[in-house]
From TrEMBL:
Residues 231-255 are annotated as: Disordered. This is Uncharacterized protein. It comes from Streptococcus loxodontisalivarius. The lineage of its organism: Bacteria, Bacillati, Bacillota, Bacilli, Lactobacillales. It comes from the Bacteria.
């Protein structure tokens, strides 16, 4: 009896799809509680897959690092803008005729002067300085001065942008901590090779000398391969439709 898996072009799968295919395969194998220790080749290849899947997963997280860096830069600019807005807001009361407001302006001006140049600091120092500023603004006498000059909105904006920045900063630190030294392309290739070898070997074994104990594994792999094959077919179909549509539009324009 010849066993043949659905033909699947692994090279056409994205890194994420390859990761999901291998990860799903391992999850289903675990759930089925298959005993594969009797076949050394299969058990060795599955062990290899268990090593490579987490590595590729970690590397895929690295892809979002550039997005995080961009978002972090934007978040930092926003808190710089909020800080500038806060500093500028007291100028509205600079020529106030009310003595209490004049005193409030004087008090806050003295405080803000201590944080002049904060915007040019690196992320870590700036975060520490802004945390200090916000803390002092929440206490006397600056709390009363801020309330008198109606700076609540400006202070809250800075507090929020500082918090948003810090959350992104922690996210970036987490990504860096999970970084692996392997090159993503190499790990992807190794994973692809290990998976292909598992399927090829299983095809040969089940064709030459079928083993009932390997039937569940065969069904698991075939089921997943079929799903991804259908997904690729749909993708190719959409590409062809888009190409035909684009060609038709060009012909109509020429006409």
């Amino acid at each position: 009896m010849t066993i043949s898996f659905t033909k699947l072009s692994l090279g056409k799968l994205s890194n994420t799809e390859m990761y999901q295919l291998a990860s799903t395969s391992l999850n289903l194998i675990d759930k089925s509680q298959l005993n594969l220790e009797n076949d050394r080749v299969i058990s060795t290849l599955i062990i290899r897959l268990r090593q490579l899947v987490p590595s590729l997963g970690t590397l895929l997280k690295e892809e979002v690092k550039s997005d995080i860096a961009s978002s972090l830069k934007a978040a930092d600019k926003l808190r710089n803008d909020d800080l500038s807005s806060l500093f500028a807001s007291i100028k509205l009361y600079k020529n106030s005729r009310q003595s209490n407001k004049q005193e409030a302006v004087k008090s806050l001006s003295s405080l803000f002067e201590q944080y002049k140049g904060v915007s040019s600091l690196d992320y870590e120092k700036k975060t520490a300085e802004l945390t200090s500023l916000l803390d002092r603004l929440s206490k006397a006498p600056y709390k009363e001065s801020s309330k008198l000059l109606v700076l609540g909105e400006q202070i809250e904006n800075l507090r929020q942008s500082q918090a948003d920045f810090y959350n992104l900063y922690l996210k970036r630190a987490e990504v860096k901590a999970n970084r692996v030294t392997n090159n993503k392309r190499e790990v992807r290739l190794e994973l692809e090779i290990a998976y292909r070898r598992l399927c090829d070997y299983l095809e040969i074994v089940q064709t030459v000398s079928p083993l009932a104990e390997l039937n569940p594994l065969t069904k698991i792999l075939e089921s997943i391969r079929s799903e991804y094959k259908e997904s690729l077919n749909r993708r190719e179909g959409h590409k062809k439709e888009k190409k035909i549509s684009t060609t038709t539009e060009k012909v109509e324009k020429v006409s």
